[in-house]
């Protein structure tokens, strides 16, 4: 079996599993975070609510088409200019909203756990609302450029504009890779330092379980996005090197594996939150699996 065929098989089976757990997990996040006031009033969790909405969109409009293309060799973006532009717009607008909201969640936890009262005041739900509105508007406007420059060219959904392609390369390297990793690493460490230095104050001012959830989210970003960043650097540094068919096949297979690892970011938050927070697990039992309790009640 060639690496190309093996890669497609991995996408079909792994992608299908990711779809199932990703759709369930993101819907679970959305349901719990929007239903319980204790979560709705927590700025960092509100950011994750918006991120989960974006992640669900990624499942439906990016991962499903990827699985279909790998299984049936059918890509609607190759034949439909409307879908080509829509998919590009969604990719360049919805995905960065998710990354930005997760970064904002970690920054908010830095504010919430700070010993400085002035800094703690920045952790406020109204500020979170404003940040989300600004973030959403910015990235929705940003996505228009992709829809303008992408089109069906020689049976592919791509752009031939050299300037835009250069910008797209920088965008992927910075927004998708460098920025989330850098922000999460720096502010994740600052949150941890705040908790170590002001343990009593942190208990009084911050939701400890929410903080653990956010720190686990930092770990998820680092694990899932770092391989994509490393592979992007490799592809950029070897872009002008002549490669034989065997090397190109290996590069293609590596891209498949790295992309699947990246999807762990979009599917994993629900499960790491359940691992990190007893209160979140209790919310899952009460809000999602309530029918288990109903079925266990037997009439006497």
From TrEMBL:
Protein's name in the database: G-protein coupled receptors family 1 profile domain-containing protein
GO annotation, cellular component aspect: plasma membrane
The G-protein coupled receptors family 1 profile domain, residue ranges: 25-273
Predominant place of localization: membrane
Transmembrane stretches, start-end: 12-33, 45-68, 88-107, 127-150, 170-192, 213-237, 252-276
Keywords: G-protein coupled receptor, Membrane, Receptor, Transducer, Transmembrane, Transmembrane helix
Annotated compartments: Membrane
